[in-house]
Structures are given as C-alpha cells and as structure tokens.
Amino acid sequence: MIQTKTHTNEKETKMRAIVYHTYGSPDVLKLEEVQKPVPQDDEVLVKVHAASANAADWHLLRGKPFLMRLMGFGLLKPKHKFLGAAVAGRVEAVGRTVTQFQPGDEVFGDLSACGFGAFAEYVSVPANALALKPTRLTFEEAAAVPVAAVTALQGLRDKGQIQPGQKVLINGASGGVGTFAVQIAKAFGADVTGVCSTRNVDMVRSIGADQVIDYTKEDFTQNGQRYDLILAANGYHPISAYKRALSPKGTYVMTGGSMAQLFQAMLLGPWISMTGSKKMGSLMAKPNQKDLVFVKELLEAGKVVPVIDRRYTLSEVPEVIRYLEEGHARGKVVITVNQNNNT
Ligand SMILES: NC(=O)c1ccc[n+]([C@@H]2O[C@H](COP(=O)([O-])OP(=O)(O)OC[C@H]3O[C@@H](n4cnc5c(N)ncnc54)[C@H](OP(=O)(O)O)[C@@H]3O)[C@@H](O)[C@H]2O)c1
Questions:
Q1: Which of 71, 197, 280, 339 is the most exposed place for a label (fewest CB within 10 A)?
Q2: CA gap 210, 251 in Å, rounded
C-alpha cells in the first residue's frame, strides 16, 4: 500500500504516481509527485518496472458499478487514490518480518486485495501478494500476468473443474483474460475453441486454440456444437443461450461481460445448477500467492506466453484506460514505468 510518512531527504522520499481524487473519466487521473512508501513489518517495497491495466482499474476510476462503492471503495469519492493491480519490479527493501524476499529480487504480483498502487514508481505491499518473477520473462511480460492469468486459472480449474480431453470454449478469447484462458486450458489437456472477431482469429489460433469461431460470422450458441466447459471472459449472450451450448453435464463460468450477463449468472445460475445437471455461475477471482506460483510454473515451462497488445508510459495511463474501456484490447496492455532496467 502507498502511504504518507515524513522523511529527511526530500529527493529520496518522493516518487511519481498516477492519482485520482474524484470518481470520473480518465481525465481526472493526474501524474503527481507523492511520498514514496515505507514498508511496514510484513511488507516489501517494490521498485516498479512495469504494470498492466485491468478492467478493475477503470471500474475503480469511475466508481462503477455503484455496488462497489458500498463495498468499501468510497461512497462519494475514492477511498484510495491509487490504481494499478498488476505489477512487476525489483525489491528495494523489506520489512522486519519478511523472510521470503530480499532486496534485488525480481518479483511480480496482484495488488487488488491490498490497496492497488502499481501505477507508480514504488509500491509497498504485503509479501504474500508477490512471487518471484519468472526468469525468462521481461518485467513487462510478467506485469501482464497476475490478475488476468489467475482469473483464467481459477475460472477453468476451480469453478470449471477442467479435465483433460474436455471440449472447452472460451468466449472473449482474444482479451486479457481470454488469451491466458486459451493457453491454460490447453495446458490442462483440453480441446479448446476460442471465440473472437475476425482480426483476432489468427492470433487466437497461434496461442493454441484448436478451433476458432469468428463471432461476426457465426454464433456458437446456435451452431449445434456442445461444450463441456464454457468460460465467458467477454461477449454477451443470454444465459439460456450458454445453457443450450453446454453438454448435458457441462459447466458455464462467467468471469466478465455485460451487467445483464453478470446478474443472470449470479441470480439464475444457482437456480439452473440446483434444478438440472448443468452447472452455471460466475467467478469472483481471489488473488493468492499459490495460484501466482502455479501460473509462474506454466510460464517457465513455456506453456503460457503473455500476449502484449500495446505498451505505454506512466504518464499515458489515462490513454491506457480509454483504450481498455473500448473493450477490444488484444491481450494485455502494459505500462513501462522504469525503462532502464527492463531485462
Ligand atoms: N471475475 C473476476 O474476478 C474478473 C477478473 C478480471 C477480469 N474480469 C472481467 O473479465 C472481463 C474480461 O476481462 P479482460 O481483461 O479479458 O478484458 P479485455 O482484455 O478488455 O477484453 C477485450 C477482448 O474482448 C473481446 N470481445 C469484445 N466483445 C466481444 C464479443 N462480443 N464476443 C467475444 N469477444 C469479445 C475483444 O475481442 P474483439 O476485439 O475480437 O472483439 C477483446 O479482445 C471484463 O469484463 C473484466 O471486468 C473479471
């Protein structure tokens, strides 16, 4: 978490960070000089080399859906002024009780459960939000991973109970979550169908999808095919259409989509699951170190490779958010914070 503390040497105690003081559009984001954080006993001070943007960043920025304001993020104005959940960088200092990391370690992590703050030159976070960065990845590639890949993993493995040989469909296969989901499903031995628009068909095939459906030409819910597991990372269809596309004992997991899709999965999903053989519901991903390490092993084995769409600088974060909000990112959008040390 980024904190404010008094220090003696002004130069060493300041850093640049993207901050926002009111809910609103990306126009309210400012690059400001703020106090450099000081790690608490259980925290690690990370010099940020790269971050990546996720939908959570623009939800927090806009304070939407309104429900999240009631969940402790600030009713009328944001409780925290920093954004950025996915981070990669180098350990600068550690708190008194931290034994897992030491200065100089290259790390990556998900800060969404500990106050965000990756869109900054430094961030101080509990050690358990981090893992050692996969050595073969650059900081930018590593920053693309934490939120999106762990969401895909938890959707497929935990909610979806994925099994080798299953027919798995990923709707929204070309986005941040989708590009990881395609590769993770392949790593679990599934037969994977990715759904995306025309311009992304080749990319989704190149990351391992066995079949690719272009949603501008074909509606997978109407073509008679049945899937054992459907992960809806993006792309609206009514829950009844997803149900139709499932095999008799199939499972549907919604990680993202429209509000209607979300409410249908949350309200109708449990009812459908209770009254029939198909399982339908939504996922709220929970960051945890174990899953991050699981993904790290897939990355180190070369079974999963981050797909990076665009790279921006820290001052360009408002443009990053605008781009992400358009809903057509191809893989992940990363922010290079410290260019000099990007191995
Ligand atoms: N549940 C959780 O805990 C959790 C965690 C992380 C994210 N999420 C949610 O998951 C969703 C996906 O996140 P993300 O990071 O993957 O978003 P993203 O990267 O912004 O998704 C962009 C992708 O969505 C595709 N897309 C747009 N419309 C589509 C459609 N009609 N059919 C199929 N694909 C379509 C786009 O492909 P084309 O350009 O080819 O159209 C693009 O590649 C978001 O709603 C986010 O809020 C949830």
A1: 71
A2: 20
